[in-house]
Amino acid sequence: MKTETDYLEKRIRERFVKAFVTYHLLEDGDHVLVGLSGGKDSLCLLEMLGKRAKIDQPQFRVEAIHVRMENISYETSTDYLEHFCKDLGVPLHIVTTSFETSDKKPPCFLCSWNRRKQLFNLAQELGCNKIALGHHQDDLLHTCLMNQFYQGRFDTMPALLKMRKMPLSIIRPLCMVEEENIRRYAELRGYEKQLKLCPYETDSHRDDMRQLFEQIQQMNPEARHSLWNAIVRAGKLVDIS
pTM, whole model, 2 decimals? Predict the structure, then answer.
């Protein structure tokens, strides 16, 4: 008899596979570096990729990087991440860094920029051609709203982004997966929660958009599908120019 965990894993896997087939996210010979924060989204992404890498087609390799930021109270058990990766047969690289605060740029921007810098550096050192990030469908929808209200443009984070200045592509294989499915799956699978959450995670426009989107869905339960279809029709999920 199938359990709720089995059902959710199947649903997430189906959306994961549909995303990489639809947007050509994974191909034979790929060497993928996963940004592993230790949160539910990146753990789910690594689990899906690690399990998929053991299937014949397409053939690709997976490694993971966890970046520890010395001056941000944002911690994940290193032992847990090491065991998690070992169970999947995925090599884990742990990098410790920091950044200087600035009056001109918010901490979230500086922290994110420095984490990305470490991802790009290691990806090139390892000879990876793709970096996988754990953004789910809700993240893409919130970004779309944020860009409209604060930037005056209709855009979002693409499922596939080919970098122009380096031989790397950014992929988001969970782009079709709803956050609630990941949250529940993480609970059922017993993903270990982070020891401390980022102190700035609720102090941002993104959190405002999350709350706004919840209100919109209460007014119109089909809002998710409508906005997603608008993004698809506008061709915003692939950037290979």
Answer: 0.93
